[in-house]
Structures are given as structure tokens and as C-alpha cells.
Amino acid sequence: MPGCAVEVSLTVITIIKFRFSFIILLRTIMMNMQSLVLAVEEYTRQRLSRYIGELSEICSIDSYSFHKPGLDEMASWLALRMHSLGIEATIIEREAWGNDILSVVQGEGEGNVLLVGHTDTVYPVGTAAARPVRMEGDMLYGPGASDMKGCILSAIYAIEAMLALGYRSSFREIRLLCVSDEEITTRHCLDLMERASLGSDGALILEAARDNGDIVSARKGNARYMLTAHGRSAHAGVEPEKGRNAILELAHQILQFQSLNGWREGVTINPGFFAGGTLPNVVPDLAQVQFDIRYLHSQDRIDTEMQWRKIMQHQRVPGVELTLEVEPDFKGPMVFTPESFKLVHTAQDIAGLLGFSVNHVLTGGSSDGSYTSAFGIPTLDGLGPVGGLDHSPNEYLVVSSIAPRTALLGGLIASIGTHSFA
Ligand SMILES: [Zn+2]
Questions:
Q1: Is this prediction's pTM over 0.90?
Q2: Rounded to the nearest whole angstrom, what is the distance from the C-alpha of residue 178 to the centroid of ligand 1?
Q3: Domains of the chain with CATH codes
Q4: C-alpha of residue 365 to centroid of ligand 1, in Å
């Protein structure tokens, strides 16, 4: 029995020792993390005017999603910038679309980190000249400043700082993928994104942090549907009874489908485009309506469509033929998983080391985080500096957020790269 007591107390001592060394290990990790993020923050802060000069330069390039010359110029600019850091950068040439670019930074650590950005903007050619970058107090305005040239630049500064400060051991590989087709639904880069995702331990999406500083832990999926009604035309005054009014039927169908709004948590339905008919004195034989649907889980889209097809059978105008088509290339949701929850916690811990707090949100807007999430990679988004009013003439980036958010990104890279996010 005494031997047993000794064994028990030895076990207790072992547990205490283990706990103690675990706490020390955690503390060491956090101390290393603190010195890393503070150093990255300081490095970026000291180079803020260079950053602003570079951002002004790339915002002066029109890179509308359909403007290949501008997108190619963006890819070349980024390739040069990466090469100047001694980083391998490959331009993926596209015939009809803008070129994409994948940079790979080799480290000496354990984990692979995927950073995803996009070089395209929503602004037509000529916007860059009409609206050059301007500063007002803490705000920097310019086309693509927040969505997302400033955020790509922030990722480059995080990488530059980590290399310059000797943190190559905090990752095995950083892959920075910048695609040229994020703002449109016709995607050409999905296979590239899948290839870049292979073997990645975490994906950090470089969309700007929300205007209140929140990062994004989940995004809804987004699909578009076209409902077409084929009726029969007739003279509206002489023999309207011979007609089959396609507009009337669609008006009825819109209201019916709209009733499914929110039928499952997170499902929203928006009829956003309508066309049909020719003249007021003609019973219209053709009408179309396009819907935008958002949802939390892929199954919600499938179930919503099933419900929709059922209620579609209740028609207002007999004889009108209805066709429902889903547009290809719809985005699935960026789902909030236990792994992304861990990343959120890590981000919050790192922000704490930098002296600020950060919340995470679910948003209905989509990003390429939906794809990395669908590939099964823990994904976090909204990791650029704070910005807002995207897709508008007042798009802005908050200058004072550049250095701390670059440091947060650097810290997250290191957490994934050392498998220490918890
Ligand atoms: Zn955008």
C-alpha cells in the first residue's frame, strides 16, 4: 500500500510538472508571438510613407475585372515587388482574362499558409485617373484602396517584415495568391485556387477588416437563379382572353418565392432584375426575373430550391410555361467550423498582444474564403487593414490601422506556420 501511495504522488507530481511545462511552453509561444507582432508592427509603421507611395502607384492602375491590360500590369507590379524580396513569383498567363499571380515564400518552419487576394476592382477604365489617391486626416481614398490593393500590400509588408526580422522559422511556406476575377461571377481561377490550397494548413483571406474593425469568420453562400416565363401574346384590347400574360405570372411567382425569405435561418431571397413584355397594348409572352439567394449552409440552397420548385406549381396564369435555372459558378458558404473558431481565438489573442480587441462576424457578402473553406481549409477573412465604402467613390482605408493589422496578419501567419493556433 505505501508503494501505491508513492506511485500516486509520483503521478500527481508528473501531472503538475507536465501542466507547469505546458504553461511555460504556452507562455514562451505567446512571448515569442508578442515580440514578433510588435516587431512587424514597428517595421511597418516606420515604412508607412513607402507603403502609401506604393498604394498610390497601384491604385493608379485601372484593374477592372474585364480590363486585361490593367490586370496584367498589376500582376507584373506584384511579381517585381516579390522578386525584389527574393521571393519566387509566378505569373499565370491568361488569354482572355487578366493574369493571375502566385508567390511562394520558403521558410524553415512547419506549416503552410495560404493568403488569398484579388487584383481586380469594380471600377471602369478611367476611374484611376479621375480619382487618384488622396489623404484626408487618417483616411486614404482611392479606387481599390480597401477592396483590396491596400490589403494585398499589407500582406506583402507582413511577409517583408517577417523575412527582414528573421522569422523564417515561423512558417514552412507562405503562398500569396492574387487572382484577377473575384469581383465577377465568371471565374477562371478556381482550379488555381484549388491547387494553391493543396497542403495548406490555414487560409487567410485579405479582404479589409470591416469599418468597425471586425474580422470575418463566416460568410453566406450566394447563388443566382433566373426564372423565365413563356406565355402567349395577344391584342390587349381585342382578344386579351387569348393571351397568357408572362409578366402577371412572374409577378405572382415573385411574391410566392419571396414568402420563403428566412424560412430557414440565414436564407435571404432578393428579386434583383426583371424584364419582360414589349408594349402596353400587347399581352406579354415573355418575362424574366433574376434572384439572388444567400444561405448559411450548402444544403440550405438545395432545400430552398426544392421548396421553390414545389410552390412554383401554384400558378396564377394557366398555360404559362416556367423555367428555373441556376447560374453556374455560384459561391458556397464560408462555414464557421471549430478550426476557424480556433483561428478567431488566436486572432483575438494576437490583437490583445498588440493592444486592441477584435470581434468576428458573419456576413452575407461573399469572398474567395468560400472556396478555401469548401476545400476543407480553416479559413479566416477580413484580415487587411480597416476599410470601407467599397465599390463606391468614397472607398477608403484607415491609415492608422495599416501597421497593427499587418502585424495581426503576421502573427496569424506565424500561428498557422508553427501549428500553434489554439
Ligand atoms: Zn469587392
A1: no
A2: 14
A3: 27-219+333-417 (3.40.630.10), 221-326 (3.30.70.360)
A4: 9
